[in-house]
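Appendix B, Record 12. Input sequence as logged:
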Amino acid sequence: MGLFQEPIEELAPEILSEEKTLSVVDLIVNGGTGSIVIIGVLFVLLAVALFIYFERLFAIKAASKIDKTFMYQIKDHVSNGKLEAARLLCAQTDSPVARLTEKGISRIGKPLEDINKAIENAGTLEVYKLEKNVSILATVAGAAPMIGFLGTVIGMIIAFHQMASSGGQAEMGMLASGIYTAMTTTVAGLVVGIIAYIGYNHLVVKTDKVVHQMEANAVEFLDMLNEPI
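Logged structural output:
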C-alpha cells in the first residue's frame, strides 16, 4: 500500500488545479442573459474601434506621403509663370499638402493675406477629413469601462437578490461564482477601453505630424511668393 500512496498524493494537486480552471467562454455563458448582452455590446464596440483605427491609420499614412521634390517643382513652375503646370502637378498629387498648395496657386495675384487665409481655410477642411470618426474611438475608450462596470453591478444585484430570496441560506460557493462571473464584464470593458484609448492617442500623434507637415509646406509656399523675382 505504501508504494501506491505517494503517486496518488502527487496527482491530487493536479486534479484540484484542473477543477479550478475556467475558460473565458464559461465565464461569459455562466453570467446570465444580462452578462451575455453586455459582453456582446462590448465586442461590437471593439470591432467598431478596430475598424476605425485601421481605416484612419491607412488614410493618415497615405496623406503623409509626398514626393520630396514636390515643392521644388512647384517653385520652378511658379517662378517661370507656369501656373497651369503647377496646378496640374497639384491635381496629380493626392495629398493634403498638394491641395493646400493648389489653393494658394489659385489665389496668386491677390494680396498675401488673402492667399494665407485661403490656405488656412483649406487646411482646416483637410484636418477635419483626417480626424473623421476619430472621436468615436475616444467615446468607446470612455464608454466601454462604464458599460462593463454596469454589467458587474447588475450581476452583483442579482447575486445578492438570490441570497436575500433564500433567507440567507445561499451557499457561499454559488454566491462567489455569481460575483466573479459578473466581474468579467468589467474586465472586458477595461480591455476594450484600453485598446480604444491607445488607438485614439496613436491616431492623434499621427494626425499632428501630418498637420505640421501641412503648416511647414504652407509657410514654404508663402515664403516663395515673398521672394523677389
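Residues 11-19 have pLDDT under 50 and may be disordered.
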